[in-house]
Amino acid sequence: MSHPARVVQVELGERSYPILIGSSLWSALAEEIASRFAPTRLAVISDSTVGPLYEPQLEAAFEDRPWKTSHHRMPAGESHKNLASVEALYHEILDVGCDRKTPILALGGGVPGDTAGFVAATLLRGLPFIQTPTTLLAMVDSSVGGKTGVDMPQGKNLIGAFHQPSLVVISLDTLKTLPQREISAGMAEVIKYGVIWDKELFGALEVGMEGLLSVDSEALPEVIARCCEIKAEVVSKDERESGLREILNFGHTVGHAIEAATEYGEWLHGEAISIGMLVETAIAETRGTQLGDLRGRLRGLLSRAALPTTPHKCDLDRIWRLMHADKKAREGRIRMVLPTRLGRVETVGGITQAEFEMGWKICEGV
Ligand SMILES: NC(=O)c1ccc[n+]([C@@H]2O[C@H](COP(=O)([O-])OP(=O)(O)OC[C@H]3O[C@@H](n4cnc5c(N)ncnc54)[C@H](O)[C@@H]3O)[C@@H](O)[C@H]2O)c1
Ligand SMILES: [Zn+2]
């Protein structure tokens, strides 16, 4: 049986849970499920791409286990992270049968993860939830922390609930089938952790970025574990985002607006965040924060991760207006998480349109 190379604990009192990180952890997952939940049934939610790839591994690992496993696939892609998918999943799972002890296991990236989490939060007023993320983004970000939910035509993640998983199992071998562009997009969030929290992580990424992009990298498990540790620490101090947790949104105020302006079609989330982090760093500069060469180093790292670093010509009025739809905006005032030095950020209110446009243009110019 394979054993996790690393275990990171998310400390949330009675709702604390471990994140197991390693290669081919399917049988370790089965063992954990047996000892933690002893279920009679288990419902797996994946998507139309991930299901065919990894359901067989689960099936094999669960073969001699006493629970019945049902598999449910939603169509792949952000456009299906909606209430129609949730309703279809409710029907399917109720039809095969479930009770208050039936764990919902999310198998996939952030889309099935967020959707399955919302199903788990709401079906029978709450079922145990297990995350087995299969994208780099889901491994370092969305599978940890308990934010679940779906999109509405009016905007992303507008319906949701906080529902912590009871277990997260990261099987690194799943990255082997993930397209390289998705690996790079996840790397944007990894780089984000370096800027907001951990200058040593940032330095390590500068040393070995090219190697980390290859899935066989020996350093990747440690980097993923470090990101999970940071997210776990932030979430355990501020589970419901009343303060500290906002720092995870560095690059996201501008990034989300770019995604919305391009109808979520042109950029992957991490690619929009790459531009967002650079523009927000430039905004910090225009406000007088002495950042040395942080923006240059950040741009270098992002570009080595094969991420975009120069914004397209855009209708800046439109991006500015879209930023007001951000959940952090308060009474029409734009709030942003801005770096103060490498490894530290602060939340700043009252960013002006002129500051935003100046930051954007600085990034267009280089
Ligand atoms: N809950 C949170 O705290 C949180 C945090 C960050 C992001 N998110 C959400 O996460 C979502 C983005 O997540 P994502 O980037 O993982 O998207 P995703 O789940 O759509 O995965 C991206 C693509 O890769 C495919 N895929 C997934 N794993 C694969 C594998 N191992 N091999 C081959 N193909 C694979 C998927 O089918 C999909 O087409 C967004 O909806 C975002 O809002 C949530
Ligand atoms: Zn993000």
- The helix/strand order is EEHEHEHEHEHEEEHHHHHHHEEH
Shape: globular
Distance between the amino and carboxyl termini? 51 Å
List ligands, each type once: nicotinamide-adenine-dinucleotide, zinc ion
- Quaternary form: single chain
Under CATH, the homologous superfamily of the largest domain reads Dehydroquinate synthase-like - alpha domain
**How many separate domains make up the residues?**
2
Tell me the CATH architecture of the largest domain. Up-down Bundle
Question: Strand order across the biggest sheet?
Answer: 1-2-9-6-5-3-4
How large is the count of helical segments? 13
Number of strands: 11
Largest sheet: 7 strands, mixed
Fraction of residues in β-strands: 15-25%
Average of per-residue pLDDT values: 95
Q: Would you mind describing this structure in some detail?
A:
By secondary structure, this protein is α/β, with parallel strands linked by helices. The chain folds into two domains: 6-174, Rossmann fold (3-Layer(aba) Sandwich), CATH 3.40.50.1970; 180-365, Dehydroquinate synthase-like, alpha domain (Up-down Bundle), CATH 1.20.1090. The chain is built from 13 helices and eleven strands. A seven-stranded mixed beta sheet has the order 1-2-9-6-5-3-4, with helices on both faces. Strands 7-8 form a two-stranded antiparallel sheet. The chain has a two-stranded antiparallel sheet with strand order 10-11. The longest helix is centred in the middle third of the chain and has 18 residues, at 220-237. The mean pLDDT is 95. Nicotinamide-adenine-dinucleotide binds at residues 47, 49-50, 53, 76-78, 81, 108-112, 114, 134-135, 137-138, 141-142, 145, 147, 156-157, 174, 177-178, 182, 269.
